[in-house]
């Protein structure tokens, strides 16, 4: 893959992982959404200035998009060394179940939702698909105008272009294995 395609793919992956739209980046970085889209699709190379603005708008460093990583063709993560991201405002913790491999197409996460704290009914949309398997507790998945109750052992697979959200509606911590396409990076 050409270097500009790789940088663009990293920008898009990171932007989607943060739940940001091209318009969000345009507003924060003062770089047009059209230009960011062209960069993401490898149609043009970003200038150092544009790349710096984009990285700052997403709360990361330029190096994240340009450094060459020593990556493997396989991924093994021991439970004690998982990357995690917490969303304290809605009681969620995401754990990465796989390390970066070159140009991943999907991501594997474990999601824990605390009891009693529910995510606001705001939904997200993006390209790709999502799959979840509830391994503990009770989770409500909202897709469009429909609500689905999933208990331990239940799973769901859906197009992520539909507005969607998740909430813990049980009395105990809820846990699920989540697979996303495109990848969600922690």
Describe the structure.
By secondary structure, the protein is of the alpha+beta class. Helix content is 24%, strand content 29%. It is built from five helices and nine strands; from the N terminus they run H-H-H-H-H-E-E-E-E-E-E-E-E-E. The protein has helices at residues 3-17, 22-29, 33-40, 48-57, 63-66, and strands at 84-87, 92-96, 107-113, 129-136, 138-143, 146-151, 155-159, 164-168, 174-181. The chain has a six-stranded antiparallel beta sheet with strand order 1-2-3-9-4-7, with no helix packed on it. It has a three-stranded antiparallel beta sheet with strand order 6-5-8, with no helix packed on it. Helix 1 packs across helix 3, helix 2 packs across helix 3 and helix 2 (22-29) packs across helix 4 (48-57). The longest helix has 15 residues, at 3-17. The radius of gyration is 17 Å and the shape is globular.
Summarize the helices and strands and which ones pair or pack.
Blueprint lengths: L2 H15 L4 H8 L3 H8 L7 H10 L5 H4 L17 E4 L4 E5 L10 E7 L15 E8 L1 E6 L2 E6 L3 E5 L4 E5 L5 E8 L5
Antiparallel strand pairs: 1-2, 2-3, 3-9, 4-7, 4-9, 5-6, 5-8
Helix pairs in contact: 1-3, 2-3, 2-4
Radius of gyration: 17 Å
Instruction: Tell me the name of the CATH homologous superfamily of the largest domain.
Output: Jelly Rolls
- The helix/strand series, from N terminus to C terminus, equals HHHHHEEEEEEEEE
The CATH topology of the largest domain: Jelly Rolls
Kindly name the structural category: alpha+beta
Morphology: globular
What is the CATH class designation of the largest domain?
Mainly Beta
Which strand order does the major sheet show?
Answer: 1-2-3-9-4-7
Strand content: 25-35%
> In CATH terms, what is the architecture of the largest domain?
Sandwich
Poorly predicted runs are: none
User: What's the end-to-end separation, in Å?
Assistant: 23 Å
